[in-house]
Design goal:
By secondary structure, the protein is mostly helical. The protein is built from one helix and no strands. The chain is elongated and about 80 Å long.
Length: 74
Amino acid sequence: MLNNIGPAGLILIAIVVLVLFGRGKVAGLMGEVGKGITSFKKGLKDETSEIEKSDDEAAQTARDVTPEADKDKA
């Protein structure tokens, strides 16, 4: 369906949106979209750092549970 829309069609759609909603509302909407994307990226970065931190803590608290008799074989 969208394969048939060319550059002229996209310009026409943009003009109709601007006429219907006005420049201020479209600019405000784009600002909100930008804030949402920024917030999403920040959340991903925070989650990744939390996972890395928990992996480091788990590695520090890990202990060797190999039986004494089997430690020489490894």
